[in-house]
Design goal:
The chain is mainly alpha-helical. It contains nine helices and three strands. The protein has two domains: 81 residues, Winged helix-like DNA-binding domain superfamily/Winged helix DNA-binding domain (Arc Repressor Mutant, subunit A, Orthogonal Bundle); 140 residues, GntR ligand-binding domain-like (Four Helix Bundle (Hemerythrin (Met), subunit A), Up-down Bundle), CATH 1.20.120.530.
């Protein structure tokens, strides 16, 4: 049996390999782009829960071949953003209340740890960077720029994870925040919440700047409790 995708031995030479590697990189980039486009559409509600997805339909909308769409959908399915629907179809997964509770339980343990670790790595430059993120988030809230608010909120928390210096916290929370994006838009549309969120973020930076570790930890814990309550109210409404 002949396998069309097998690489003949004759091309296993340095000059030939460079072309093969370029092709693989190009394909990977296209899959990444398809994945990002689909993920954004799911998280911002362009693709609504329950909406069926076919490789042909998505490929047509994104103007690419089916192969990168197939691979992107496999990743999204593994991550819980899409699920099986019918015999061979897929559909956008509904917002899973149990998953969100689990994420916030995890955050309640991980983010105080991240802040505690970050406190040992604080410098004036990093405090300035944190304050700049707060200023940007406040500006997005005043403009009622929902997409900007979501991005700013994620960037602030990623700043804390990165400041912790623990790569496992960074990598684990990056995926969790993609799930959280699915509810953040609705929650941040409420002005009293969007304003309060940035006051709480600023208070964490203030405590880190003052080298008050326990205050910083207590403030991030309180922030997560309130965020959990906000999201629960939205999901259950």
């Amino acid at each position: 049996m002949t396998l069309d995708y097998c690489i003949p031995y004759s091309i296993l030479r340095k000059a030939e390999w460079s072309g093969v590697l370029r092709a693989l990189v190009s394909r990977k980039t296209l899959v990444d782009q398809a994945y990002s486009a689909l993920l954004d559409a799911i998280c911002d509600g362009t693709l609504s829960p329950g909406e069926r997805l076919t490789q042909a339909n998505v490929a047509e909308r994104l103007k690419v071949s089916r192969q990168p769409i197939h691979n992107a959908l496999l990743v999204l399915k593994a991550q819980g953003f899409v699920r099986a629907s019918g015999r061979r179809g897929l559909a956008v997964a509904p917002i899973d209340q149990g998953l969100f509770h689990s994420i916030y339980e995890f955050r309640s343990a991980i983010e105080p740890l991240a802040v505690r670790l970050a406190a040992a790595r604080v410098t004036p430059e990093r405090i300035a960077a944190g304050r700049a993120l707060v200023v940007k988030g406040e500006a997005m809230a005043r403009r009622k720029n929902i997409r900007g608010m979501i991005e700013a909120d994620m960037n602030f928390h990623m700043f804390l994870y990165e400041l912790s210096g623990n790569p496992l916290i960074i990598d684990t929370m990056r995926l969790n925040w993609q799930h959280l994006r699915r509810t953040m838009g609705a929650v941040l549309r409420l002005e009293k919440i969007s304003t309060r969120v940035w006051q709480e973020h600023a208070s964490v930076i203030d405590a880190l700047a003052a080298r008050n570790v326990e205050a910083a930890v207590a403030r991030i814990e309180a922030h997560i409790v309130r965020a959990h309550s906000d999201v629960t109210d939205f999901i259950e409404s």
